[in-house]
Amino acid sequence: MNRRSRDDILHVAELARLEISESEIEARLKEFNDIVLYIEKLNEVPTDGVEPTFQVGQGGLEGTPLAADEPIPSLSPEHAVRNAPQKQDSFFVVPRVFDNGDEK
Amino acid sequence: MTSEIRGKGLSDLRELLDQKKISSVELTKLFLKEIDRREEELNAFVTVTADGALAQAQEADRKIRSGNPVTAITGIPIAVKDVILVRDVRATASSKILGSFVSPYDSTVAHRLRAAGAVFLGKTNCDEFAMGSSNENSAFGPVRNPWNTKYVPGGSSGGSAAAIAAYEAPVALGTDTGGSIRQPAALCGVTGLKPTYGRVSRYGVVAFASSLDQVGPMARRVDDLAILLEIIGGHDERDSTSSRTPIEGIRNELAKPIRGLRIGYPKEYLPPQLSPEVRESFETALRTLEKEGATVEEISLPHTEYAIACYYIVATAEASANLARYDGIRYTRRAEGASTLRETYVRSRTEGFGPEVRRRILLGTYVLSSGYYEAYYLKAQKVRTLLRRDFDKAFEKVDVIASPTSPTPAFELGSKSADPLEMYLSDIFTVSISLAGLPALSVPCGFTKASLPLGLQLIGRPFDEATILRTASHYEAVTRHYERMPPA
After folding, report:
1. How many other β-carbons are positioned within 10 Å of the β-carbon of residue A86?
2. ipTM score for this prediction
3. Distance from the A1 Cα atom to the nearest Cα atom in chain B, whole angstroms
4. C-alpha span between A50 and B385 (Å, rounded)
5. Is the CB of residue A77 less than 8 Å away from at least one CB of chain B?
6. For the whole model, what pTM was predicted?
7. Is A42 in contact with B367 (Cβ distance < 8 A)?
8. How far apart are CA A17 and CA B316, in angstroms?
9. Strands B400-404 and B262-266
10. What contacts B333, CB < 8 A, 6 or more positions away?
11. Whole-angstrom distance between the N-terminal and C-terminal Cα of chain A?
């Protein structure tokens, strides 16, 4: 196995919107490599012609059941925003989304 | 807790309530008092809902007094793992990231228990987002094992297991994704059931791995598992993965004999390095079942050695998707002082999630990422098919598969936290079952010389909870391990 590098793990962290601090990165990288090495054990198993199992339930056999197209009561907008860290009326307040979300 | 009540199961409590020997309010107060007395030491609860519980108890007493029909659980307290939503009660998933989130709605399982008249004592501590096998990953501190408070209760449903073991609650709900009901039940000397995938609705349950998660009952007595399963289980329109297979009548099956039942034990689950005490208690359990008329034979589950790798790819991949919603925007704690949207996401998530959760999100993101998806996630789902086929083949020869629930009894707090991989390997007996979607339970089967509990795992065919519950019920009646309780 090729050990993953700092750049690899930092790329994954970026995808997951997590930060790994400079002081942690050696330890996190070592753990990450140990675990990835372990899961590569699966390469020993021949799986040609084997169908993947994404679903073990009955939904897999008959397809996903669809709900009737009828409106039913749900959470009111006011109720739905009750736990928002920042809200206005029944809207969530968020930092600017435009400009890629990276601009201040 | 009075000695007349301590340790009693649902049927006994029902009888006391119906015969007016105790009221629901009095009973609830006894449990609340016990929680108060033990909590500093055990830390099994994140939130205790005393006022709500007493109000529900009063309502139950009105029903009982007026002679209205009651269910098996009317007026009886229950504890609920803090990944299962209860309306108007704080839900934390044992994480900091949810801040002071109060659930605006009931999960289906809470709704059904509420309608049946259960009394909610509170929300139990667990590993954060149900990720862990020791309840040491909670943002609210570890839970301690009532049998020895220097030891872990197991995880991730450690709080529920410890609460029942210490009799802070007679029954509880847990969730099981890779063993999180069964293993803490074993380590705490109580019984717990992971139903067949799709048996119990996941609506209102904080998702960890959507193709694996199941809510299940935990209790002191096998009969209580059957009672609770019938109340919480069954089809739910709100969960498209929930099954229409009927759930009524399971409890009636428990009294039927097990003569002629074919039990298989997988040779891969008894490796030479297995702890001698675990092996001995397991072999003794098999002999007990033989004496009760079952036949016992060795079987093989040849792909067992790949189960952990498979699980930690599938579960973490699904977790990375499910936990993407915790972003500091709609219902989580938001990091202070972030000046852009991206910074809000990164800081809220990095500050809000604990180390094990972050570890699993990273792994899960990696195995799904472009260039790696086929090598890891797709490969793992194919191995999953092979694991499932192992079980299908085995069930052609036997009706129940038996194994130890955990390769070790409870271990000391802090003794395994240095190496995450070592912790993952301790899930070896439970993860295959989750990947295959089968029902499985743990029932107490003895104690180590150090008085730590051990559990027997019984695995059934899809939707055949009745057979494993029946087997466990007979086993429990003969061995009566439930009579032994930890120091009060």
Report:
1. 13
2. 0.91
3. 13
4. 7
5. no
6. 0.96
7. no
8. 16
9. parallel
10. A85, B96, B97, B98, B99, B348, B351, B352
11. 41
- Active-site choice (B94, B156, B160, B320): B156
Q: What digits encode the pLDDT tens for the residues B324-353?
A: 999 999 888 999 888 889 999 999 999 999
Other beta carbons within 10 Å of A78: 11
- Rounded to an integer, the average pLDDT of B209-235 is 98
The whole-angstrom separation of Cα B303 and Cα B370 is 28
**How far is B330 from B350, CA to CA, in rounded Å?**
17
pLDDT digit string, tens, across residues B102-155: 999 999 999 999 999 999 999 999 999 999 999 999 999 999 999 999 999 999
pLDDT of B390 reads 98
* B144's tokens: 């301690």
Are B279 and B360 in contact, with CB atoms under 8 Å apart? no
CB–CB of A53 and B338 under 8 A?
no
**Interchain proximity B240–A65, CB inside 8 Å:** yes
Integer distance in angstroms from the first to the last C-alpha of chain B?
A: 9
Question: Is there a contact between A58 and B349 if contact means CB atoms under 8 Å apart?
Answer: no
CB-CB contact of B194 with B182 (8 Å): yes
Residue B282 C-alpha, separation from nearest chain A C-alpha, in angstroms: 29
Rounded mean pLDDT, B77-93 = 98
Chain A nearest-CA distance from B23, in A, is: 35
The answer to whether B81 is a known catalytic residue is yes
CB contact under 8 A, B382 and A50: yes
Q: From CA A96, how far away is CA B481, in angstroms rounded? A: 60
The predicted model gives B154-175 an average pLDDT of 98
Length of chain A: 104
Q: Which two tokens stand for residue A66?
A: 């669809």
* Residue whose token pair is 């601009």: A103
Question: What DSSP line would sit under B348-417, residue for residue?
Answer: HHHHHS-HHHHHHHHHHHHHHSTTTTIIIIIHHHHHHHHHHHHHHHHTTT-SEEEEES-SS---BTTSST
Cα gap B174→B160, rounded to integer Å: 6
Burial of B394 (0-12, 13-18, 19+ CB in 10 A): middle
Q: Chains A and B: how many Cβ contacts under 8 Å?
A: 171
